[in-house]
Amino acid sequence: MVQERTLPNFNAATAQITKQEGLRLYEDMVLGRVFEDKCAEMYYRGKMFGFVHLYNGQEAVSSGVIQAMRPGEDFVCSTYRDHVHALSAGVPAKEVMAELFGKATGCSKGRGGSMHMFSAEHKLLGGYAFVAEGIPVAAGAAFQSKYRREVLGDENADQVTACFFGDGACNNGQFFETLNMAALWKLPIIFVVENNKWAIGMAHDRATSDPEIYKKASVFNMVGVEVDGMDVLAVHEVAKKAVARARAGEGPTLIEALTYRFRGHSLADPDEMRTQDEKEYWFSRDPIKKFAAYLQEQNLASQEEIKSIDKKIQELIDEAVKFAESSPEPDPSELYRFIFAEDN
């Protein structure tokens, strides 16, 4: 039996989305999906090593939130499921792929691998292997924005930070401590809970005293919102409002996006804990197929335009693989580089 929380009503027509915005959101989601599918192929071909956690099914959350922010200016903090967050933040697909191959041309110079994507240029604060590890880091980034603006008088320091984490992180101390600080200091931060129902093999409803995570914001006098994480327009609308509030100095927002990962916890996970009925239910709500149909129904995109984007992204990912394969390994002489800060 599939258990599903009743989702808030959302009328897509109220989104007032333009054709340009719609195509941008669709392209970003397709980029994430095709990239992750190629990662699975490369992993099983022995091109990648270690743990690789894919994002398939959750694309509407990454695209909906990050595309509501300023690329290259606002901060994004991720988890160990970080490839697609990096792509949405603007890190080139070839650099993300090269990082997964452990090459020197990767965004983390081949040092980070799957779980530690980082790009100072794109304000990507990193992926983090430990559950909830990135939450206080994101708060630090939000604090420095507020400090620069209010104490140092830098009027341009109005950056917002988006902090992504899963439902499993919401039972950790960092979650509660950081939400308290963020609310107390009115930090310009958005906490995005990607509730995909499962913390590895532990069902969310079995692991918490109150499965409705967004309600926990009320304890800290913080705005808490529940949204359909399989609907990119719903996520995008909620994110835009949260970003505007944060940038205006009105404090943080906790967004709980109800979503689902289409693959196992990692590529090493046989995925035997979830029932086939549950998976089929969520597969039928594929956010990319759903949004492609919406764009065509609203005359925002033709079938040819959709196919053109699909083809463009497939070619981009194929090129990313070629780039990664042909890139050099990190030089052994640089083994001790990037451990300590270096002068520019």
Q: Could you describe the 3D structure shown?
A:
Helix content is 41%, strand content 9%. It has 344 residues and is an alpha/beta fold. The protein has one domain (15-260): Rossmann fold, CATH 3.40.50. A 5-stranded parallel beta sheet has the order 1-2-3-7-6, sandwiched between helices. Strands 4-5 form a two-stranded antiparallel ribbon. Helix 6 links the parallel strand 2 and strand 3 (189-195). Helix 1 packs across helix 2, helix 4 (93-100) packs across helix 11 (303-326) and helix 5 (134-150) runs parallel beside helix 6. The N and C termini lie far apart (58 Å). The model has no long low-confidence stretch (mean pLDDT 94).
Give the helix proportion (percent range). 40-55%
Q: What is the CATH topology assignment? A: Rossmann fold
In spatial order, strands of the major sheet run 1-2-3-7-6
Strand content: 5-15%
- Integer average pLDDT: 94
Radius of gyration: 19 Å
The coarse overall form would be globular
The poorly predicted ranges are none
**How many strands appear in the DSSP assignment?**
7
Number of helices: 11
The chain-level structural class is alpha/beta
The major β-sheet equals:
5 strands, parallel
> What is the name of the CATH architecture?
3-Layer(aba) Sandwich
- Gap from first CA to last CA: 58 Å
